[in-house]
């Protein structure tokens, strides 16, 4: 067992180092955010919360946050409805253009986001539409749809269809089967799909940069503009809030739905 | 039961979305074939000038750079991601498993800007690494990591690692542990069992992971823009620059179209190159 | 012929393999998963060349024990010896064991030849030798000519034979079979069982076989170890297990059984006499130690030990015919009776006209010829 033990130790070390690599930027940013001085220094001379105060008071961040919530709420909810309905059809039926529609909807996973952003920008201009929220939301729906589609599709796959047959045999018409059996059983998949869509939409940057205007810019766009113009640690403060909020959301999601199952990485046995 | 209840109601919205995406891509394609009228946002008549202009060495270099950065990033991510994916799948302690999962997955949802900014703080001349090394007396002048390929690739690996781990873990978790046990009962030590059984059986996941990592890196914008700082340019940066600095949307569109074509060409090549491997592992 | 470590044995359990006759020795093995005990103080010896079956319900600990012998699991305490050598700390790849997995675990990315040759390659066997052995074991399982097939191109029975060939190719000291027939349909199962037993006898390879199917265990084994709730309840030949079960669990799990309310009449040395109706039956006294005369006991009788007679005479008890079930070679008759501890009494009649003779609703008496029965104290 000796060579085996050594091998294990090496494996554990590699995994630990890689996890440290993943965590490093978050830890460093946290240190920077609490640094009292405007110039980065490690370790910091003094600690302070001033950058958090400054960041929270900064208008562009406030507006960006507000805009982000609007876009995210609409985009993730629309994507959830459209995506789960299509996932259901995909799982149960065969119909014309099934594979075509599926591959088009999954394409944003491999199409560069700047191309999609540019496309919606040009499309809006061609149609004479203003660069308002509608364009941003439409663009976000397309971008997060693949994730909803996959999440709900996996849940549907794991759903024993005999429950539905049982309900139908007991006299439930299709609509009642859907509302009384399928949707309740699918609820964890639907909620986690919606949650992922919301987080991704809220954080979407590249395409947003193309389709938002000064008036509709979302938080990531505001942050990007801030990083380009200023070098003070306000940005670090925002990042820390961001990281903590996201990790907390994911921990809750993990406790409720089991991320492993949602991401399909659970053991075969 | 009706034959296909709700079929129309369930498919139409999705079809509309698909149509919207196709329309957007068609708009890009259409613009790429229009002439640039300086000083005007309205493009001129049909032309192929935009594509012939791409042949300039300046642009060809950016394309080559983009491909090599995406390729190197995908490979590095694979090498770093595989042990993590194994640990994630094989960890027996549920708490440890959750911890690994949260640590790995959280960056996926942070967005490019936050992560890129974090790396600026780590890699910058006054950043974490240089401060620490200077303080320890290991270097006399700050190491230049910002505005280098090294800096850009490091940050991009960090960006693509979560998705790689998820795809690899999905593949590894679906390999029946009995295969490895069978190999061990037949006399294969842990390393040989891994090399002859687990690794080949995870090839579909490796292909999926590398493909996605490549596509995501190709699509990255904030990282090369902020960490590359004009010294390292990728197609996305050029598109943005042309669109929003020069308002040359037709040329930006032609760059996008070429980028898209290139992505698909590389992905198709990757697929073709790995088809024999995949055939081997088809269940 | 293949050279097996147990070549001299030829399927006859050799009494002098070791000092105590054990080729595989399992000694006081316990294993917990978290706080859940999966195996508690399990000890059993397997003789050279025999088939020992670990029989029990799922969750009984039999697969855990198999995995401990294979080295896939380390026991909390206890030890495993194979051929006189302690192997508790030896990793599975140095134990020289052949394992036939429940779903065969044939490597899907390799063809039949690569699968079967895998273990030999791991041992650095020369190419020519590998080819020779490959041909030999494939002939043994009657799959000559299937070398280049992929596992998914084979039927279930063929897959199983490849898996067996793969396990045997390395001339294992011990062959471990983990529910190997559960994935096969019923007809194929019977012929595969015969084939497996035939090959095992031919090679004389010491075999541990795990199953939850008691009829499979009875027909295949030289000896059976019955496990339940992580403990070994009884080890013995199929006949001993069937006729002289050591406790209520074994009596109920192996074969069909009737449990009748009776009373202890007297004890004479190793034999106790139990009375029911006008009959008195002799049973082993051991399980009834400590009970006083006249105490209620549960009498266990097999359906084929009972028969229906007209009322009166020397019957055990009486009852009303509740149902018939025609089984081809015999008819199972279910009788509602006051004396039955659990529901009904099952009687196995071999006359084909038994159903007509004993219509549902008719009253009948149950007689018993056997002197071989067992009895246990009633459940609290």
Can you give a write-up of this model?
The complex is a heterotrimer of chains A (269), B (283) and C (380). By secondary structure, chain A is mostly helical. Chain A contains 12 helices and no strands. Chain A is globular, with a radius of gyration of 23 Å. The two termini of chain A are 25 Å apart. Helix content of chain B is 74%, strand content 0%. The two termini of chain B are 34 Å apart. In chain B, 52% of the residues are buried. The mean pLDDT of chain B is 87. Helices cover 23% and strands 33% of the residues of chain C. Chain C is built from 9 helices and 20 strands. Chain C has a 6-stranded mixed sheet, with helices on both faces. In chain C, strands 13-12-11-14-20 form a 5-stranded antiparallel sheet, with no helix packed on it. Chain C is elongated. The termini of chain C are far apart.
In short:
Chain A is mostly helical. Helix content of chain A is 77%, strand content 0%.
Furnish the topology, listing elements before pairings.
The complex is a heterotrimer of chains A (269), B (283) and C (380).
Chain A: H1 2-33, H2 50-57, H3 59-92, H4 98-106, H5 113-127, H6 133-157, H7 162-169, H8 174-203, H9 206-211, H10 219-229, H11 234-257, H12 259-262
Helix pairs in contact in A: 1-11, 2-11, 3-6, 3-8, 3-10, 5-6, 6-8, 7-8, 8-11
Chain B: H1 7-32, H2 49-53, H3 57-90, H4 94-105, H5 111-123, H6 128-135, H7 149-173, H8 177-185, H9 190-201, H10 203-219, H11 222-226, H12 235-245, H13 249-281
Helix pairs in contact in B: 1-13, 3-4, 3-7, 3-10, 5-7, 7-10, 8-9, 10-13, 12-13
Chain C: E1 24-33, E2 36-46, E3 51-55, H1 62-70, E4 77-82, E5 85-86, E6 97-100, H2 112-122, H3 127-140, H4 156-169, E7 174-178, H5 186-203, E8 206-211, H6 214-220, E9 223-228, E10 231-236, H7 238-243, H8 248-253, E11 258-268, E12 271-276, E13 279-284, E14 296-301, E15 306-309, E16 317-326, E17 331-336, E18 344-349, H9 354-357, E19 363-368, E20 374-376
Parallel strand pairs in C: 3-8, 3-9, 6-7, 7-8
Antiparallel strand pairs in C: 1-2, 1-4, 4-5, 9-10, 11-12, 11-14, 12-13, 14-20, 15-19, 16-17, 16-19, 17-18
